[in-house]
Specification:
The protein has 1 helix and no strands. With 61 residues, the chain is mostly helical.
């Protein structure tokens, strides 16, 4: 029968604590890892490689 690897389990617990602490610090400062709204493509602007919408293709027409 295999022995439990206590060192590995401890390392995983420590990494989880460190990650949780960093997330708490980010929330406290007010920064997040999610992309900002300015990074997201706008619906009314064509994306790269796509032609702009013309009269027949325009939504809501």
């Amino acid at each position: 029968m295999a022995k439990p690897n206590y060192a590995f389990a401890k390392r995983q617990r420590d990494l989880a604590k460190k990650q949780k602490k960093e997330e708490k610090q980010h929330r406290k400062v007010g920064t997040t890892d999610t992309p900002q709204s300015e990074d997201l493509p706008q619906a009314d602007q064509p994306q790269e490689g796509q032609p702009p919408l013309s009269g027949d293709d325009a939504p809501g027409a």
